[in-house]
Amino acid sequence: ETAWHGCKFEALFSIMYNGFLATSNSVGQGHRYFDNTPGIYVFKDSLKHKAERYARFTPLCQDGVFWAAVWEVRVNRSEREANKDTDQWVQREGSVD
Measuring CA to CA, how many Å separate 80 from each of 8, 17, 67, 68, 90? Predict the structure, then answer.
């Protein structure tokens, strides 16, 4: 299914270089995730606007233009993590393209 993932713009290079979204699983590295539920956090297609709230705008060229990144991804919902009381889908690594 189609899903959406908002991220810090600074993460864009790493995601593109490595070719995948990494699991959020380390508070020490600044990851945001539910207790005992590491995974890749996305929103279903109809809630794309909520993924946009996770994007962080960053000035790049000192020209007054700010940039942000929101990924449109495909997820295998049969490989989801335990359901939580949230609008977010929590996917296992490898289930997001």
Answer: 23, 25, 30, 26, 6
